């Protein structure tokens, strides 16, 4: 297991993610327990004690078995006699009865609860007499006798509210934690890097912390915040070991689902690699949701689609940035007819990666575009949202990419902030050429705006 997986315990992530649910369940349980205790009818409890002697009728001093004596006191024979005295049925008579045995004592303690003092006193007296009479029946010596006649307090027994609330608190916490673990399993959400490794079978190379604020466009001053600098430095070192000195390579950055922050990872990986002095080209390979050009304040057109369609030269489409040794090939003019010739794409990637390190910001892993790119790049890096991503999506992404020959080198886990992590959830304007009238070519100067979110 990687060092990043060891840093991110799944159980803690589950508890923190569903903390409000645990608190709500606990509060409801405490309130319910307290309300039950306060609304429970007051009861009087009468108490009587009976001592049990050894049976000496057989010239032996056998010690009485108090467990057996307690069962006799609760037996139907004794209950029937007591019920007759109370002028009620056996079920009603035994409802308020409890018989206990103090530790290391030959004493039975009869307790009887009832709504009134008189009923509690009569119940305790009836059961103690019924038991004593039964045990002494046809005996030359007395085996049982009352040592403390039934007594009842002046005030009814009150519920111990503090104890009830304490028990409710513990029970509520147990129910809440148990519920969120079951719910999390049903939902199938990923929980931490260790879970990502189990579901994908890939090592977690790094964990990218959330960035709450990011000023655009990216510049050398704001591109790599302190928490991310070490992470991307490690990724650069890892990819450097996979490439031959003096030669280039290509890596596709994709994710199981949208919103994992793959554009952020691709852009910062390119920036960090360029900082080492290598020539780097970042390609906007997500034609459906192009964002790379926005990060660097560059025009969307010309770009990848224009180069592949022979409507723009590669030298003009690959644009310089504020970062030394880093160039960007934006997505280009949006297309409605899908991808281009696979051989043209492969030749373009091979040509750029002869000496440069090519990073491709790709589409979602399960798409046809991702399959086309994965089979034509040297490496594939999977970006997984370790908190909101699902286990099934992660496993399916690995299967899809491996199925087309993608060389998966590992995962990068993220915990994107729902609004301000650099994954461009905000609306961005994309230049889309209007559909021309049948038989006419589109006017290069006429464009309309289409809004997309990512």
Automatic annotation (TrEMBL):
Transmembrane segments: 161-183
GO molecular function annotation: protein tyrosine kinase activity
Region ranges (Disordered): 433-454
Signal peptide: none
UniProtKB keywords: Membrane, Transmembrane, Transmembrane helix
Gene Ontology CC: plasma membrane
Full protein name: Mrp family chromosome partitioning ATPase
Organism lineage string: Bacteria, Bacillati, Actinomycetota, Actinomycetes, Propionibacteriales
């Amino acid at each position: 297991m990687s060092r990043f997986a060891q840093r991110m315990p799944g159980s803690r992530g589950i508890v923190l993610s569903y903390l409000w649910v645990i608190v709500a369940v606990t509060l409801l349980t405490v309130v319910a327990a307290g309300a039950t205790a306060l609304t429970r009818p007051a009861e009087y409890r009468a108490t009587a004690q009976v001592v049990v002697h050894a049976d000496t009728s057989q010239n032996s001093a056998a010690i009485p078995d108090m467990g057996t004596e307690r069962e006799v006191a609760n037996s139907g024979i004794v209950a029937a006699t007591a019920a007759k005295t109370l002028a009620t049925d056996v079920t009603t008579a035994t409802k308020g009865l409890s018989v206990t045995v103090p530790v290391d004592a030959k004493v039975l303690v009869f307790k009887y609860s009832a709504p009134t003092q008189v009923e509690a006193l009569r119940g305790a007296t009836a059961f103690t007499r019924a038991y004593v009479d039964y045990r002494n029946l046809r005996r030359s010596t007395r085996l049982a006798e009352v040592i403390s006649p039934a007594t009842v307090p002046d005030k009814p027994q009150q519920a111990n509210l503090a104890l009830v609330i304490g028990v409710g608190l513990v029970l509520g916490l147990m129910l809440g934690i148990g519920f969120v673990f079951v719910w999390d399993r049903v939902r199938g959400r990923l929980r931490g890097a260790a879970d990502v490794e189990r579901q994908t079978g890939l090592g977690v190379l790094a964990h990218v912390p959330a960035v709450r604020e990011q000023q655009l466009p990216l510049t050398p001053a704001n591109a790599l915040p302190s928490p991310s600098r070490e992470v991307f430095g490690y990724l650069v070192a890892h990819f450097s070991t996979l490439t031959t000195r003096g030669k280039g390579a290509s890596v596709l950055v994709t994710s199981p689902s949208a919103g994992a922050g793959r554009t952020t990872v691709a852009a910062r990986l390119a920036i960090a690699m360029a900082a080492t002095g290598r020539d780097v080209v970042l390609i906007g390979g997500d034609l459906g949701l192009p964002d790379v050009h926005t990060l660097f304040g560059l025009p969307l057109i010309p770009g990848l689609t224009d180069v592949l369609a022979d409507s723009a030269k590669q030298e003009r489409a690959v644009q310089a940035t504020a970062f030394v040794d880093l160039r960007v090939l934006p997505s280009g003019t949006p297309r409605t007819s899908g991808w281009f010739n696979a051989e043209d794409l492969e030749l373009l990637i091979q040509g750029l990666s002869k000496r440069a390190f090519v990073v491709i910001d790709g589409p979602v892993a399960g798409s046809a575009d991702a399959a086309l790119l994965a089979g034509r790049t040297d490496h594939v890096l999977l970006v997984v949202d370790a908190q909101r991503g699902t286990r099934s999506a992660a496993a399916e992404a690995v299967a899809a990419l491996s199925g087309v020959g993608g060389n998966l080198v590992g995962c990068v886990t993220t915990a994107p902030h729902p609004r301000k992590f650099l994954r461009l959830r905000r609306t961005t304007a994309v230049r889309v050429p209007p559909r021309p009238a049948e038989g006419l070519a589109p006017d290069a100067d006429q464009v309309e705006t289409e809004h997309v979110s990512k």
